[in-house]
């Protein structure tokens, strides 16, 4: 689904990633770790086409990102649900409207309107539906971001630090949602610092752990 | 040009669903509305000024342009015959609406500033004057002169050209003043509306970024913004236009200025002209927002 | 009023250190600068319009207001004596700058439109005219009439009041047109600058919030913003003023309008008037930003 | 230093906190936990005067918040360093300028300019000094927020989720900084979901754990 080949990237201030080769196969479950500032968010941005590799090739759904038209990028994003690290919402819309936004902009709607309720209940936000994003707590915003990423049942889910601000019970609940989606065939990648979360996931699905160090992405062994 | 215009039509009619993604209130909205309103208000005044000065210029120009005088010098005993001859010639001259010999009283009034009220007109061998009012087409001065020379040798046509000149010049100046004002205001209105729309859009960069990130196509985002800001500019300009038109109705202030304010008003069908202002503002906002939206989008992937 | 004004002085001079906390560029800055520039540009034109119409009105008014005519009717043999008497009276009348009997040629030219060029003036018992040019103070018409009645009974003073009236009315209209334009532009300039500053400040709500959260006092925050926006408004208005003044210099377009554009320019010391515009804009921005900053702050703790 | 007495607060949508009595004595070290949305951030805001209690009394440095003038609030905040959950920066200033901001607005400067370098090095941001906040990674922003909170050596440090986006090693480093400051007599309160962090701190200082549940704040026992 997502293939990186010898990719290099830097923000003009030096190399951040180089020679990164990585492949997220359909139905796979990956974690992405590495120290703060290593480039996890940067790698995610390469995976949904917000950044374009300086060297090498990034293929999303078998299409080369650097050759995509702008509308192609938009179309690809409809198949990739992203939890951004700095949850990006429209502050003038309610939480429910924000969660529904990916459907709204692609002119679709839910087959079954109760799905929204179900999802919001799962992430514990059913009572906050009408609240505007600035009125939510940090953890509530993070959960809303996850709900928005999965609402249109995308083929790939990229979650950047989705549990940084929520308690352990809620983390497990969110993880369970992603594991469930993975079981239904979705590809999942989670960037996180939380080793306990990774351990907990490993007991439920076959998860690979990628670690960024020294500008490279490597598969971490059993020893986390 | 044609493509965006047909889009403009689609825009005003439909796709209100996309509307929600653009922040509905806030200062960017107020700004666009207010800038359009201000500029429309000023434009109404510029329009009124330009039309009023045009009218004034017309009045001054016409007052003399449409009249002429024929001066008949003749011995006293031939005078009446000559007057008759001139009147007959004028009756068959195309372009003459009315011709009328001035009475002695009128002639005395004309001369009064120079000679005082006691001028013994009847005892003076002064020429008699025939006042000619032209119709819209006007007379052929040279042709009339030739005819008069043949049939009433004592009659001389004075078409006031010499007297008219400075007044016509003044009128032209006034009229061009109106046009300069309207050109200036229109240009600045366009610039201000463009700037307000672009500024408003810049403030919504975050919204554009989020929409783009969740898979909205450029056309969707641009349309949502363009629709909103076009309608805002239209609405603001409509309010400004109405306020401007109301201001032209205002009871004139005390003092001699009152008379002028009345003169500044619009008359009859002229009241239709300001109605062009809101569509113009909308058109400017349409192109400005479209350009701003598409170039903001170009910076994002 | 006095307190803020003394603050204004302190503001322009010092405390640049606080300046850094206000975002230096971005569309809010551009907006304030551009709004001020636009309004200053329009204000220069309004000013030029108002001064030019004032001048025009003065010229028209003066042309007649400062002159009068004395008409002397007398038997031919007494005429010269009467003229002499009148000239002597006028020489001792306060307010008279110049007095001069019209020559026969001049008098003939005046009468030509009504009587033709062949008027036998010397054979006619028509009155002679003395042209009086008044100085700035003007003459006391009634007093002069009384003296004339006593010393030169055939002389009648005509101070043109009846002829002057319509021209003075036109001139007054023109002048009030200038004042209306300047009042309108000034008001709108104030409103637009106020709005731009408030809008810009609203966009910086986040900055104000952060500053307040880390322990900045209200006065510190307000001062930083007020200083920045006052200077921006001043700078923008200065640019607009200069552009406006340059536009008044522009080579006039071909055609009769050229003459008018020249007439619209400023003359001599009038060029100093537009220099008041930037300080005025700064003053408006000062109070507008101060009010906006303090009321934005009131909403935060 | 900070005293709450029978404090109640709600955002108009019902009670969030009620009957909260709490005291942060000088030199004490507290953790604040509770599920996401329980009101940790809200409690913090009451502690630095951004919110005013609906009922009860909040005293900061022996002054009642509800009776404070606006300038008093500003003065009190100069003695309280806060790490906000949604790190608030001025995006047009560099990282170093942002960290120095509390000093700038109170017209002060560092006794020793090298202190800034030292602090930035400790939180691992020495190389990012000139970067603008939007160019920082999530974890880098969080570390910058902590640096800003401690730069003027405040009497009280309130840190809302200061380690949500940083890796474990960095978390320990940041904790160590706070512990060090606490040893120098500063009062510290940290809101966090990370139980490991709490455990790790307990081995270094005498830390009390406060837990929000059922609108109340209670001291949690040994069993976390
Ligand atoms: N827009 C940008 N311009 C310049 N540098 C940037 C930009 N975005 C990120 N960086 C730098 O690139 C590096 C990697 O950033 P990135 O956000 O990918 O890190 P991360 O692994 O996600 O870190 P964290 O765990 O803290 O979120 C950081 O040092 C950051 O300062
Ligand atoms: N400005 C606001 N207006 C209305 N409701 C608000 C506002 N801020 C917070 N809330 C609500 O109050 C509750 C508590 O929020 P708070 O931010 O204090 O939680 P928290 O304990 O910090 O949670 P988290 O761990 O997720 O950060 C939440 O349910 C939130 O939706
Ligand atoms: Mg990151
Ligand atoms: Mg919180």
Walk me through what this model shows:
The complex is a heterotetramer, with 2 copies of chain A (224 residues) and 2 copies of chain B (301 residues). Chain A has 224 residues and is an alpha/beta fold. Chain A has a domain at 26-42 and 82-219: Rossmann fold (3-Layer(aba) Sandwich), CATH 3.40.50. Chain A is built from 7 helices and 10 strands. In chain A, the strands form 2 sheets. Chain A has a 6-stranded mixed sheet, with helices on both faces. Chain A has a 4-stranded antiparallel sheet with strand order 2-1-4-5. In chain A, a hairpin with a 7-residue loop joins strand 1 and strand 2 (17-24). The longest helix of chain A is centred in the C-terminal third of the chain and has 16 residues, at 168-183. Chain B has 301 residues and is of the alpha+beta class. Chain B has 2 domains: 2-58 and 165-299, no CATH class; 74-153, no CATH class. In chain B, helix 2 (27-65) packs across helix 8 (218-249) and helix 8 packs antiparallel against helix 10. The two termini of chain B are 27 Å apart. Chains B and C meet through helix 2, helix 4, helix 6 and helix 9 of B and helix 2, helix 4, helix 6 and helix 9 of C.
């Amino acid at each position: 689904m997502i293939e990186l080949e010898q990719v290099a990237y830097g923000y003009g201030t030096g190399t951040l990633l180089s020679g990164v080769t990585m492949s997220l196969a359909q139905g796979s479950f990956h974690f992405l770790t590495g120290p703060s500032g290593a480039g996890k968010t940067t790698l995610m941005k390469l995976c949904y086409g917000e950044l374009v590799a300086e060297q090498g090739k990034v293929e999303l759904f078998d299409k080369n990102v650097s050759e995509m038209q702008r509308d192609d990028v938009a179309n690809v994003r409809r198949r990739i649900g992203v939890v951004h690290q700095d949850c990006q919402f429209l502050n003038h819309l309610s939480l429910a409207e924000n969660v529904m936004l990916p459907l709204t902009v692609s002119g679709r709607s839910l087959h079954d309107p109760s799905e929204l309720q179900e999802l919001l209940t799962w992430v514990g936000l059913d009572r906050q539906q009408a609240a505007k994003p600035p009125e939510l707590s940090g953890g509530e915003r993070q959960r809303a971001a996850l709900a928005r990423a999965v609402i249109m049942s995308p083929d790939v889910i990229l979650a950047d630090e989705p549990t940084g601000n929520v308690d352990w019970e809620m983390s497990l609940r969110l993880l369970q949602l992603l594991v469930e989606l993975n079981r239904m065939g979705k590809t999942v990648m989670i960037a996180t610092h939380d080793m306990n979360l990774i351990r907990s996931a490993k007991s439920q699905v076959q998860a690979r752990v990628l670690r960024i160090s020294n500008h490279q992405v490597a598969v971490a062994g059993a020893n986390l | 040009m044609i493509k965006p215009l047909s889009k403009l039509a689609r825009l005003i009619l439909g796709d209100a669903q996309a509307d929600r993604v653009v922040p509905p209130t806030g200062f960017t909205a107020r700004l666009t509305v207010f800038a359009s309103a201000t500029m429309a208000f000023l434009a109404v005044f510029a329009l009124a000024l330009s039309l009023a000065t045009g009218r004034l210029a017309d009045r001054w120009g016409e007052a003399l342009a449409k009249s002429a005088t024929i001066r008949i010098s003749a011995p006293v005993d031939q005078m009446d015959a000559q007057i008759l001859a001139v009147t007959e010639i004028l009756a068959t001259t195309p372009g003459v609406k009315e011709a009328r010999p001035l009475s002695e009283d009128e002639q005395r009034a004309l001369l009064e500033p120079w000679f005082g009220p006691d001028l013994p007109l009847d005892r003076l061998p002064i020429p008699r004057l025939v006042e000619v009012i032209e119709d819209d087409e006007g007379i052929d001065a040279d042709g009339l002169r030739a005819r008069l020379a043949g049939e009433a040798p004592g009659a001389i046509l004075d078409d006031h050209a010499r007297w008219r000149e400075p007044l016509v010049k003044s009128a032209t100046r006034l009229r061009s003043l109106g046009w300069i004002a309207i050109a200036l205001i229109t240009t600045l209105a366009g610039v201000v509306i463009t700037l307000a729309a672009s500024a408003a859009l810049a403030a919504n960069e975050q919204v554009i970024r989020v929409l783009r990130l969740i898979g909205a196509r450029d056309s969707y985002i641009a349309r949502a913004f363009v629709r909103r800001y076009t309608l805002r500019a239209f609405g603001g300009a409509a309010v400004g236009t109405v306020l401007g038109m109301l201001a032209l109705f205002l009871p004139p202030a005390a003092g001699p200025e009152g008379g002028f304010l009345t003169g500044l008003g619009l008359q009859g069908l002229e009241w239709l002209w300001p109605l062009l202002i809101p569509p113009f503002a909308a058109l400017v906002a349409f192109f400005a927002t479209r350009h701003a939206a598409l170039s903001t989008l170009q910076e994002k992937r």
